[in-house]
Amino acid sequence: MIDIKDKKDCCGCSACVQVCPKQCISMNEDEEGFLYPKVNTDLCINCHLCEKVCPVINQDGTREPLAVFAAKNTDDSIRLNSSSGGIFTLLSESVINNGGVVFGARFDENWNVVHDYTETKEGIAPFKSSKYVQSRIGSTFKEAEKFLKQGRQVLFSGTPCQIAGLKKYLRKDYDNLLSVEVVCHGVPSPEVWQYYLNGLCKEKHIDKDSIKHISFRNKVTGWKDYTFSIEANKNFSHYSRENSFMRGFLSDLYLRPSCHDCPAKHLKSGSDILLCDYWGIQNIMPEFDDDKGVSGILVNTEKGRDFINKLTIELRESNFKDIATYNPSMLKSVKVPEKRAYFFNNYQSDFALTVRNCTTPSFSTRVKNKLKSIIIRFIKH
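The structure assignment produced for this chain is given below.
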């Protein structure tokens, strides 16, 4: 029986809930806004299936990719409306064209992030672009299994721990499943996201019901220097480095506890393909960088290789070392911030101020950094 004693031991994938034959496990929100399983012991029959499908309890070994590429969609309009190089769209369209089903993360009507599926090309758009909030998986593992058993091709995209959860839930390999993990350094609290969004709407006089689109990675100012933006009755745009929610996220302030000890780093998820931003491309392949977005592709299985080979894309061979150098979260978990507890105890009093207090370096740290930069410049000269 699943019994979470330490919150870092649950990634919230909901595999245990969906596999339970007695439906006696529910996901309950804690004080930080993350979901954890709770077992109704009166109904539990001690079959231990919940434990057998847990990706934290049953971790696979690390892997090395079969191939690594830098890639771009040849359609710039798609690329500009994607987080990086627009490769997810091509993979999804390929599956839809074959009569398949695509699973991904989208916003719901209240701007929570949920997992869902589509059987049409039009339904792919809501899954595009990064959403820096943990998505609610719901019953999508069970739904994907249903389509797989029908013989339909399924593309399931998600964070590494979600892909690991799906694979454990299925308990067998399916030739018609393409699993695509999106590199992830951690998932923020849905409760913190809603608190920030509601506060922003109130402060900027944005009617939340009028919101048409939210982008955590708007490329209007470029791929590397992106903005957080909202399209509504009053549009809002903010450089991500200056936006309080993004600043807190990038400082790891309100990530799920398991993200600091992730069970699925270094390709342990079992995915066929990993997609990421190819950060550092300007240093590795400057001729391939136009600041509109470049995807990194890690091909992890022969099935993944077959899919990539069928796509019409701009492709450059690369290597694991180069891509991992600028994507360290691909390999290792981020540390727990010293002020994480302070943030959760104070953010509802003044969100922006609390983030600033948690992320602004102390005077002594600033002095040390300044001295370090001076010494480095002196050595170089």
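Interim note for the steering committee: The chain has a mean pLDDT of 95. The two ends are 63 Å apart (CA to CA).
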